[in-house]
Specification:
This protein is α+β, with helices and mostly antiparallel strands and 408 residues long. It has helices at 2-5, 19-30, 73-87, 98-101, 117-121, 141-144, 167-179, 183-195, 208-212, 270-280, 290-297, 390-407; strands at residues 35-41, 44-51, 53-55, 60-61, 68-69, 200-201, 217-218, 224-226, 266-268, 301-302, 317-318, 323-325, 345-352, 355-361, 367-373.
C-alpha cells in the first residue's frame, strides 16, 4: 500500500516525507478497527461477533476471546471482589475505611466525617480526579490524598455523586490492608480463578496465551494507544518508580493502590466479560450471596435533579461499582438509555485510549451484551438515543441482529 501511494517516479524508499502523514491517515482509514461483542443469557453465550484487526502490523484478526484493556468496566470487577470479601467477613461496607488502611482517610475539609467503602464504590465519597489517579510504583497514596484537588471542597462525603477514578485505587488499597495480599493477586483469587476467566490487571498475571492474543488499541488517527505487545508482556506492569526502576518487591501494600490500575486496567476478552456479567446477574451459583448481589445492583445514589453531576445525563443511577441505566421515574435530563427501549439495565460502560466498551444486563429477561469498539475519536458524536456515543449505540443495536442470527 505504501508503494501504491508513493509517487510514480522512484520507489517507496524515495518517497518524500510529506507523504508520510497522508499514508498514515490512509492506513488508519482503510484498516478495520477492532470490534467484538458477545450476547448471553443466564449461563449461556448466545452469539459471538468480531471484526477488524487486533493488531494492524501483523494483520491478526480480532476474536471475541482476545483480551483487551476494557477501561472502567474494571470497576465492576473490583466491586465483585470487594463483595466476596464482605461475604467472608473480611470487609464491612460501612466501617471507617481508615481502620483497614492503617492511615487516616479523611476529606481535609470535613475531617470528622468517616469515609466508607460504600461511599467509595458508589462515587459519593467526595473524591475527585483533580490530583490525577495514576501513581508511580514508589508514590504514596496518603501523601497524594493530601492535595486539595483530590477532593470536592463543596460536599461532605456520603451524599453527592461525582464519578471519579481515584476512588478505586483507594478501594484497592483497602483490600490490601484488610487481607495482606497484593491487589492483582486478590483479583485472581477472588474473581478470575473462581469464574475460570483468563484475565488480569496490567498484564502481570495473565497467561502467555492472553499476552499473545492482546488487542492493540489505536487512536482514531491510527497511532498506537496501548498494548502493542508483540507477544511479550510489558517489562513493568504499571508506572515505574521515579528513578525508572520497577522492582515489584518494593510495592507497599495499602500505600499505593493505583499501580495495577484498578480503575481501568483489566485485560479481559468479551467471552470472559460475559462470564463476569453472568456472575453479576446471579447465574454463577455460590459466587456471591444473593444479598450482596442485591446490594451491588440497588441504587446507592439516584439522580433527583440536583444531588450529583450526571455528566450531561450519562450517569443517573449507581450501585456499588455498577451503573444503573434507564431507571423508572428518572428526571428528563437523564439520557442514560443507549438501548432506546426504556428497560432498566445493570452493568458498566468503559472509555479510554480510543476504546468504548459496555457490559449490560436486563435483570428481568437475563439477556446481556458485552462489547468493545475501538479507534473512536475523543470528540465522537453522541447517538440519537442517549448521552452514549453513536458507536456504542450501534454496537448495542447489533445485539438484535446477533440474537436473530443465533435463533436461525
Amino acid at each position: 500500500m505504501i508503494a501504491a501511494l508513493a509517487p510514480s517516479v522512484g520507489g517507496a524508499q524515495d518517497m518524500p516525507m510529506v507523504f508520510v502523514p497522508l499514508i498514515a491517515a490512509t492506513l488508519a482509514a482503510t484498516t478495520p478497527a477492532a470490534h467484538a461483542s458477545v450476547t448471553f443469557a443466564d449461563r449461556q453465550i448466545l452469539h459471538q461477533r468480531s471484526e477488524g484487526r487486533a493488531n494492524r502490523a501483523t494483520g491478526r484478526a480480532t476474536r471475541a476471546d482476545d483480551p483487551v484493556r476494557i477501561a472502567s468496566i474494571s470497576k465492576l470487577a473490583v466491586a465483585l471482589a470487594v463483595m466476596r470479601l464482605v461475604d467472608a467477613g473480611t470487609l464491612d461496607l460501612d466501617r471507617d475505611a481508615s481502620l483497614y488502611l492503617g492511615w487516616p482517610l479523611r476529606h481535609p475539609g470535613f475531617p470528622d466525617a468517616p469515609i466508607t467503602l460504600r461511599m467509595l464504590l458508589s462515587h459519593t465519597a467526595s473524591v475527585r480526579d483533580g490530583a490525577d489517579y495514576a501513581l508511580k510504583l514508589d508514590d504514596d497514596l496518603p501523601t497524594h490524598l493530601r492535595q486539595a484537588a483530590a477532593w470536592d471542597g463543596a460536599h461532605t462525603p456520603g451524599g453527592y455523586f461525582s464519578y471519579a477514578n481515584l476512588n478505586f485505587p483507594i478501594v484497592a488499597a483497602i483490600m490490601e490492608g484488610a487481607t495482606g495480599e497484593r491487589f492483582d493477586r486478590l483479583m485472581q483469587r477472588l474473581v478470575f480463578a473462581p469464574l475460570k476467566i483468563d484475565a488480569c490487571f496490567n498484564w502481570a498475571l495473565c497467561t502467555n496465551r492472553a499476552v499473545r492474543h492482546a488487542v492493540t488499541l489505536y487512536r482514531a488517527d491510527g497511532s498506537v494507544a496501548r498494548d502493542d505487545l508483540h507477544g511479550t508482556r510489558p517489562a513493568c506492569p504499571g508506572s515505574a518508580a521515579h528513578d525508572g526502576s520497577c522492582d515489584l518487591a518494593t510495592y507497599r501494600l495499602a500505600r499505593n493502590g493505583a499501580f495495577f490500575s484498578p480503575q481501568g486496567g483489566m485485560r479481559i476478552s468479551m467471552t470472559g466479560l460475559a462470564r463476569l456479567g453472568m456472575a453479576l446477574d446471579g447465574a454463577v451459583t455460590g459466587f456471591l450471596r444473593p444479598a450482596s448481589l442485591q446490594a451491588m445492583t440497588t441504587p446507592q445514589w439516584r439522580f433527583d435533579g440536583s444531588n450529583g453531576d450526571t455528566e450531561r445525563g450519562f450517569y443517573c443511577g449507581y450501585g456499588l461499582g455498577v451503573m444503573l441505566i434507564a431507571l423508572p421515574g428518572r428526571p428528563a435530563a437523564c439520557r442514560d438509555d443507549p438501548f432506546g427501549d426504556n428497560r432498566p439495565r445493570i452493568g458498566h460502560a468503559g472509555d479510554a485510549y480510543g476504546l468504548k466498551s459496555g457490559l449490560w444486563i436486563d435483570a428481568v429477561t437475563k439477556h446481556g451484551i458485552a462489547f468493545f469498539v475501538s479507534a473512536i475519536p475523543d470528540d465522537a458524536p453522541t447517538g440519537p438515543r442517549s448521552a452514549f456515543t453513536a458507536a456504542e449505540e450501534n454496537a448495542i443495536a447489533g445485539r438484535a441482529r446477533s440474537a436473530a442470527s443465533a435463533r436461525k
